[in-house]
Amino acid sequence: MTLSHLATEDVFVVERNDADFRAGQGMTKGLGIVFRKFRKALFGKPNSDRADTEGQFNVQYPEERLVLPEAYRNMPILLYDDATGHELCTSCFQCERICPPQVIHITQAKDPATGKPVPAAANFVLEYDTCMSCGYCAEVCPFDAIKMDHDFELSTGNHPELDVNYDRLLRPISYYEAIAPTMWSDVKEQAMKKLQNNIKRRPGAIGRDHGQKVKGGAAVAVAATPVAGAAPAAAAKPRGPVAAIGKNMPEEKVAKLISIRAANAAKRGGGDAGAAPVAEAAPIVETVVDTPAASAAPSGPVAAIGQNMSEDKRAKLEAIRAAKRAQRGE
Amino acid sequence: MADALTQLGFASWLSVLIASIIKVTLILVGGSVGMMFLTWYERRAISYMQDRRGPNRVGPQGLLQPISEAIKTMTKEDATPREADRIVHFLAPVVMLGATVLSFAVIPWGRMFPVDLNAAVLFVIATGGLHSIGMMMAGWGSNNKFALLGGMRGVAQLISYEIPQVMAIIPVVLMTGSMSLQKIVEAQNDFGGLGWFVFSPVGLLGFALFFTASLAEGERTPFDIPEADSEIIAGYMTEYSGMKFAVFYLSNYMSNLAVCFITATLYLGGGNGPGVDALGGFAGGLLSLIYFLLKSFALFFIMVLIRATVPRLRVDQLMGFAWKFLLPLVLVNILSASFWVALLRWDQQWPQLTEWFGAPSTADATNWGRLAIAVVLTLLINAGAVALIMRLTNRNVQKHLYTTDEELALGLS
């Protein structure tokens, strides 16, 4: 057979090492290679670079774990804002529409007073058992509300448990930021902006983190159990109006602040038509001042309130802001 | 052992019975525990050759893994095909295991001999040959075409390789003048326990040939043609499951272990080594046992290394290798062994030898001149034969897998 019709660079010439006398040199060489691999795997350093061809590759899984790449994706989760407890999801149904195995089921929230749809989800069910981890939902979400989790140890003997409801899907933004910092910082600004706009259209407690509402603070911890560490920060956070008031504020200033807030609440109470306690809504933004997860805070002037600001300045700022809100007619 | 029991006050027949039962138990337990260790050893060793870790969870370093496997196989369903010959199907693994266990009877564990037969070499060969009966029974009794093919292949392979294997032992028997394994071990005790046959040209070639033929005898890769998974599923074991399969497995590994033991005994001096004679007594016996096991497991490591390196041969390559390569070399080796014996031992048989080179070596004085001449002569014969036969077998090997344009132009092909 001749290969002359092929270009020379197409032909890989494999020369036998010595056609005249072959006395097992090839076999000896082969045995030598295998023995070297044996030696390197047994005594050498474990393989650290994926491009290496020798050394122990195995990771002793339960004891040792590989660092997962940021873009690793397993199952979808939903995010909520650490500071306000507001979910990012607006029930726009984009994810439900794109989901190839159709495992996402959203119920839109309705304003109890008017019966009109509100940009928030009343319930959100994801069938983890049929989810194929394609990540389309996370890609299509215009509000960056649905993201792919890194937790892969979901094995269970209880099958119905794999139909995951809203409470168990929710994770604080700080958790997502911990597992995928650069990916979140890319979208952080627009996501938080959109969230602020949506919060305005959510009356009362609608759209507030289900886990918090239904089971109290503990629910978040339940939702995030497999990856303890990132989530609890948010769960433990105080959200009452008192939190905003620093512990070492002079008393007159505290009184001032409270009066401002009361005025604020009164103004808003008129427009809200008997909705849920608004007093709670106002200071939510301020909580950020004291939270460790300040980076996750809504953008805008709030970030400017640094922790080392003098107390009266802080009170002034607060007053100005309250006035602005009143002007806007919130 | 029987004598010691008689002294303790047992009747002579009873002491013989008790001693035999103890020996049999030791052989059976030693064989199966050795096999369990061997499976673990092979799996760990081959794992590291493939950059893995192997079983390391059950017990320390996974040492108890074989026990968990044994429990697993025992609890599995033991299925027999409806159309199978039930009796033959049932007996096949028993015959296989029985043949293997028999060969353990004569293996010297260092300085300890369960049974010292004066024809132990023949006994080992004979029990090794029984294997093919078990194989054929399994192949026939299963009533399955793959099983039958595997059985046929196994028998063909065993018959072919038994010839070079047996004839590779002849130089050892010639050099020792005995077929008793105990005598063979004793004959390798010169030079401070390092007078192993493998250090002589005759023994080196014999070792290589015997070990290669034994690989085929034990159906190890690259000679695992009877069990070629990619062609005939599992060969004669196709229709076996549960404990019967485990018995086949057990007998395979035990025969591999036996092959390592026999090779270590015949060529690597058995339990001989520096310090054994100096220590003497029980400590010496223990040291010799350690030497013996070390040698055997080093040999098994080579088996594993070969398994991890070499792909399976074709049937025609297998047969060609046995008949065209091993057999001529084995015959040449017998010739050079005869020269070796003549040059080292002959005194009155050929008086001129003593005249020219001096008296043959005795236990006190080594005749280095005779030894040097014997080494050089046998080395020349063996190396020449290896070179010639390799050249002959490679004569028709193509240089390339295709024809170059230059060769075409020159009309060379």
From TrEMBL, chain A:
One Gene Ontology term, aspect cellular component: membrane
Superkingdom of origin organism: Bacteria
Transmembrane segments: none
Any one Gene Ontology molecular-function term assigned to this protein's record: metal ion binding
InterPro entries assigned to the protein according to its UniProt record, in alphabetical order: 4Fe4S_Fe-S-bd, 4Fe4S_Fe_S_CS, NADH_quinone_OxRdtase_chainI
Domain 4Fe-4S ferredoxin-type residues, every copy: 80-109, 122-151
Keyword DNA repair set for record: no
Keyword entries, A-Z: 4Fe-4S, Cell membrane, Iron, Iron-sulfur, Membrane, Metal-binding, NAD, Quinone, Repeat, Translocase, Ubiquinone
Protein name in UniProt: 4Fe-4S ferredoxin iron-sulfur binding domain protein
Organism: Herpetosiphon aurantiacus (strain ATCC 23779 / DSM 785 / 114-95)
UniProtKB/TrEMBL annotation, chain B:
GO BP annotation list: aerobic respiration
A Pfam family of this chain: NADHdh
Annotated keywords: Cell membrane, Membrane, NAD, Oxidoreductase, Quinone, Translocase, Transmembrane, Transmembrane helix, Ubiquinone
GO (cellular component) term, any one: plasma membrane
Main localization of the protein described in the UniProt heading: membrane
Chain ranges passing through the membrane: 12-41, 87-107, 119-140, 161-181, 193-216, 246-269, 289-310, 322-343, 371-390
A GO molecular-function annotation: oxidoreductase activity, acting on NAD(P)H, quinone or similar compound as acceptor
Catalyzed reaction equations: a quinone + NADH + 5 H(+)(in) = a quinol + NAD(+) + 4 H(+)(out)
Top-level lineage group: Bacteria
Function, as annotated: NDH-1 shuttles electrons from NADH, via FMN and iron-sulfur (Fe-S) centers, to quinones in the respiratory chain. The immediate electron acceptor for the enzyme in this species is believed to be ubiquinone. Couples the redox reaction to proton translocation (for every two electrons transferred, four hydrogen ions are translocated across the cytoplasmic membrane), and thus conserves the redox energy in a proton gradient. This subunit may bind ubiquinone.
Protein name: NADH-quinone oxidoreductase subunit H
